[in-house]
Amino acid sequence: MAPRHRHRRTTAVTALAAVALIVPVTVGCSAVEKALDCAQLAVEITNDVDDLQDALSGAAANPQDADKILDALDKDIDKVGDRTDNADVGKAVDDLQKALDNVQKSVDSGKHPDMSPVRDAAGELTGVCSP
User: Fold this and answer.
1) Where do the segments described as Disordered lie (predicted)?
2) Are the CB atoms for 96 and 77 separated by under 8 Å?
3) CB burial readout 61-87, b (16+ within 10 A) else e
4) From CA 90, how far away is CA 125, in angstroms rounded?
5) 20-54 in b/e burial notation, b at 16+ Cβ within 10 A?
6) In the chain, where are the structural domains located?
């Protein structure tokens, strides 16, 4: 009976060693996946900001298009906030949300919004989301 008991102990130790090796790799992959998700969403947000700028510029200004783009930006911002717990990303998301809220207020009142805070905040988000 002693050999069977030793075999179980060896198997258990081997299994624990395998888990000990896998856990850091899994945690590392999770962090990389979060960074890549963040970076991908930052690119989407940057593209949405460009689209918003186009919708609000010149004689072709279209408030309905701007509203659709602002809604898309809100959803993308929520996704970034949900997928990370990084303090720098959180601050960048908050800054971007505040800038977009100001744009929305300007659009709602019929004024031409200042897009520079939005572009700055989107750039900040892209910077902190870079893997």
Assistant:
1) 104-131
2) yes
3) eeeeebeebbebbeebbebbeebbebe
4) 9
5) eeeeeeeeeeeeeebbebbbebbebbbebbebbee
6) 29-129
Q: Which amino acid is at 76?
A: D
Residue with structure tokens 């888990």? Answer: 19
- In tens, the pLDDT along 41-84 reads 888 888 888 888 888 886 456 777 888 888 888 888 887 777 67
pLDDT of residue 68: 86
Through-space distance between the first and last CA atoms of the chain, rounded to whole angstroms = 54
Task: Give me 64's structure tokens.
Answer: 């309905």
Q: What is the pLDDT of residue 52?
A: 86
- Of 1.20.1250, 1.10.1760, 1.10.287, 1.20.120, the CATH number of 29-129 is 1.20.120
Residue recorded with tokens 């929305």: 104
